[in-house]
Design brief:
Layout lengths: L9 E11 L5 E4 L3 H18 L5 E3 L8 E6 L10 E6 L2 E6 L2 H14 L11 E10 L5 E7 L7 H13 L4 E5 L15 H4 L16 H13 L3 E8 L4 H6 L28 H17 L4 E5 L8 H17 L3 E5 L12 E4 L5 H6 L3 E4 L2 H4 L21 H5 L15 E8 L7 H8 L3 H9 L7 H17 L14
Parallel strand pairs: 2-3, 2-4, 4-6, 8-9, 8-15, 9-10, 10-11, 11-12, 12-13, 13-14, 14-15
Antiparallel strand pairs: 1-7, 5-6, 5-7
Bound molecules: ligand TNX.
Amino acid sequence: MNHLIPLPASLLPTQLEFQLGPDTQILVAPATPETLRVSEFLAAALRHATGYALSIVPDPPAHARDQIFLTLHDDSTLGAEGYELNLTPDGVFLRAQTPAGLFYGIQTLLQLGAPSPAQKPQTWRAATGSIRDVPRFAWRGAMLDVARHFFSVQDVKRYIDWLAAYKLNRLHLHLSDDQGWRIEIKTWDKLATIGGSSGVGGKKSGYYTQAEYRELVAYAAERFIVIVPEIDMPGHTNAALAAYPELNCDGVAREPHTGIEVGFSSLCLDKEITYQFLEDVIRELAALTPGEFIHIGGDEAHATDKTAYTQFIARVETIVEKYGKRMMGWEEIGQAKISARAVAQLWRGEYGAQAIQQGAQVILSPGKHAYLDMQYNEQSPLGLHWAGYVEAQDAYAWDPATLSADIGESNILGVEAALWSETLLTFDDITFMAFPRLTAIAEIAWSPQAARNWESYRQRVAAHGARWQALGLHFYRSPQIDWE
Ligand code: TNX
């Protein structure tokens, strides 16, 4: 029980052991499409680990021994995502108010019973005890930049699997930037066909069709992860400006951008066609998005007049709201007049107070702690270092509530780990930058501040390293951690 990440809100080990047997079943009540689906998720993982049948029994008549019981029941103290997990030598009892809570309890259970993949079919044992667990923040996010280098549907799904294992619940996809446009828009088809044909260094271009994007949204939703689409504007728009000459003030299409410098592009804010374009894009994105938010970027608009920028952001919010969504943007949107429904994502910490004064909440992605694209140290083969070097401890040892004097716990919707991809080409590159820092941010987002500390995390993450190694996950062997 002593290696869980994120650390549960409360945990009481009882020093015994539950062992899965060839006849262990998963009993689920009430049996609904969603509870059956999460039961199947657990069954598949345990079958894979043990080779046992793990049949699912919907609405079992009476309690049997040596089984795993999943039940939904009313307990408002568990909220929308909490769960209660009791393990005894005679059975595993998992209760939650919602299927999401059951899903998080399952992630905990799967961490507790660490099978050795080398010894299959094999006994699967877990230490006994009781856990009651609820998350600290509602928004536990990870951002992936698929614009600088494009990543396949398969790669994104594999990243989603890891997010789910650590109880993250938002995947923010940075779908457009100067170097590439990565989502099919049917009313402006050249965004994808022309804007999607470039990338940093001329490598790894491409885009998701709407069908592929829906597939990602559904795959994430099955793991209780909401995909948050970002179209960056009015800067970071060279790919769109290359696809459509009419979006430029001078009417001349831009050349594709394959470098990594920022801050030179801007939509033409004086032209009405710009707003028609945005309305079409936002309408199509909203239709693809079950979640509440559309992220409109808004960062580093260095090539846009400041007053025009603030008017632009306010107008974009009305378009986002027209299609039933809330606007999220990088912290620079705090300079504009935004509604209390908007959310500002902090990365440098300059404009958060302005957003909060307007009643908006914030999501914290401070570069010094939560930017997974920062190099670990001077020798790191991948990454940038404009925010400094971010070692495992830097990613872990900070508290959202004390990061800034202007920002209190109630202003914070959540925390998000950002992974920009200027220097990343492969899935191994992604995971090398993400682990063991993504797990640090996941714990900050989920676990109570008082319960966690670096010394405990560094010991627990070492056990995860052994599992990552066994699963072939490429990760950074930080010298701050005594890897097993
Ligand atoms: C700043 S963070 C950017 C991105 C870069 C990133 C690299 C933010 C809102 N803008 O355009 O990719 O730094 O770390």
